[in-house]
Amino acid sequence: MTPRELLDKALGLLLAKDMSGFADLWAIDGTMEFPFAPPGWPTRLDSREAVREYLRGYTDVYDIKDVCEQTVHETADPEVIIAEIEVDGVLVRTGQPYQRRYISVITVRNGHIVGYRDYWSPLGMTADTDFTEHGDA
Q: Contact, 76 vs 87, CB < 8 A?
C-alpha cells in the first residue's frame, strides 16, 4: 500500500472504532511519536504492540464521528506523506464535543507504517480526554 492508501485505511478503521486493526497497520518494529506530548504522556512507542496497547482504551474516551478536513502533502520521498487532519466527535465520559486538528508525518515501507510522528496540541486536554491513564499505558 502507498502512504496515501494506508492513511485512508487508517482513517476508515478509526471511524469504525477498530483500534486493533489500526495498530495492525504498523510494522512490527514501527514507531509512533508525540513531539508535543504533555508531561506524563508517552512521547514514543517502539513497536506495533506498543501502539496497540496505547490505543487499547481509546474508544472508551473518544467517539470520533467524522474526519472533517483532510489535506495530504506528498513529499520528495515517496515513502513519506504529511497529513493535516481534523476530526469531530464526542468525549464518551462527558458527552462533550471533541474536535482536534492533527498534523502527522507518516513513513511507510513494504505496506506498513514504520514511522508516525503525530503533532497535536495538548492544550485543552483534561483527565476526561486522557485515554492513556496518565501515561501508564
A: no
Q: In 10 A of CB 133, how many CB atoms? A: 12
pLDDT tens for 89-134 read: 999 999 999 999 999 999 999 999 999 999 987 765 555 455 544 3
DSSP 96: -
Which residue do the cell numbers 489500526 mark?
22
Q: What's the one-letter identity of residue 83?
A: A
The fold of 3-122 is: Nuclear Transport Factor 2; Chain: A, (3.10.450)
Residue-level pLDDT at 126:
53
- Domain residue spans in the chain? 3-122
Please state the pTM of the whole predicted model. 0.87
